[in-house]
Amino acid sequence: MTLCKKMQGIIDFRPQANWHWLFDHNRSTLTLNMGDRAIDIVYKPEMLILKFDQPVFFTIEDVANYIDLFEGPALAGYWPALRSQIILHILVVNHFHKPIMPKNWLFESSSVAQQPLVNKGDHIILKSSAIKEAKKYFVLDNDDNFILCMLIEKSHGLTFNRTFAQFQIVKVTYEKISATKADCNTLCQYL
User: Fold this and answer.
1) In Å, how far from its chain's centre is CA 98?
2) Spatial separation of the C-alpha atoms in residues 186 and 190, rounded to whole Å
3) I want to staple 176 with a disulfide (CB 3.0 to 4.6 A). Which of 6, 93, 113, 172 is the partner?
4) Residue 181 confidence class, pLDDT cut points 50, 70, 90
5) Sign, CA torsion 117/169/155/145
6) DSSP letter string, 86-148
7) Quick one: pLDDT at residue 12?
8) Which domains, ranges and CATH numbers included, belong to the chain?
9) 89-121 residue pLDDT tens
10) Confidence band (pLDDT; 50, 70, 90) for 23?
11) Which long-range contacts link 29-34 to residues 24+ away (Cβ below 8 Å)?
């Protein structure tokens, strides 16, 4: 499925008044209905708090957050379609995702002695502890102890039988960060 509307040959990524979330019970999938198109969200139903059978329309706050992220510097390096998908998954995390516990054991500790400075909207690298695969994540939230981040790349092999899919979120402690924003530019070739 595509994430955008095509109008007279021009792709429009701006949110529209008719956009709404709807849970498709037949497919067990949260979907963003965009009028003439629908986008499936990757999160499984057990990861979400879904207490609605009616459409949940985009709010003014959703539109403002979407536009701020779409036009802001944090995601400027991505193609518009991927940027839109990232933003839609961020909105789902903010509205519907259940709280999650840290999963530090999945990632290798950094060799850096000092805790890195990380802010919401930054890019970080996490390296899986079992198979040593490093991938790029986008910071959704952080506090004194933990970072909530979203996988930006297509997938991240964590163990020989466990893989995160694109847009999966994970919470880790700061010592798991292998690199921060400046170092992430070296991984752009994978996107």
Assistant:
1) 14
2) 9
3) 172
4) low
5) positive
6) HHHHHHHHHHHBPP----GGGBPPPS-SSPPP--TT-EEEEEBTTT--EEEEEEEEE-SSEEE
7) 60
8) 5-96 (no CATH), 104-190 (2.30.30)
9) 999 999 999 999 999 999 999 877 677 788 999
10) very high
11) 30/92, 30/96, 32/88, 34/5
pTM of the model: 0.85
Tell me which residue of 90, 100, 101 sits closest to 41, measured CA to CA.
90
Tracing tokens 């708090």 back to the chain, one arrives at: 49
Return the pLDDT at 103: 96
Query: Are 135 and 187 within 8 A, CB to CB?
Result: yes
CA 67 to chain centre: 16
List 20's β-bridge partners, or say none. Answer: 33, 57
Q: From residue 172, give the alpha-carbon distance in Å to each of 63, 69, 91, 125, 176.
A: 29, 23, 20, 12, 7
According to DSSP, the residues that pair with 166 across neighbouring strands are none
Query: Which tokens sit at 61?
Result: 């706050």
